[in-house]
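Example (one chain per record):
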Amino acid sequence: MKEDSLYNTLIIACIIGIIVVTALIFTNKTNEPFTELYFEDHQNLPREIELGKEYSFRFTVHNVGGKGVNYFYEFSKDNRLLDAKTFILEDSKTTTFREVFTINENFEEAKMTIKLLNKDQEIHFWVKQI
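Predicted structure:
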């Protein structure tokens, strides 16, 4: 008899716990602002580079911040600035940039980086000279 009441108490406690957790999951929505930064066609990024030849890639910025944001990005090779731009992106909007570059000095391997300076975000890929 005592075991039955203990089991019933545990079952009721578990059901109440499940209801509370479910309610918290569905009612505790946070609208934390963020920015998506990613490469378009990431599988076809330049991997091997010939000196003096032109290469390009595209990357996208998506603002999910709840308001318009003034962005500033830099494109660099091993922390050496190649390009920089400022742009405004309204909430829930997306924009894609195309970067074109040519490397003329010898190197073995280099890190090509896009940094969103005001959001402390970056994406990168590696290239080798052939």
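Caption: The radius of gyration is 25 Å.
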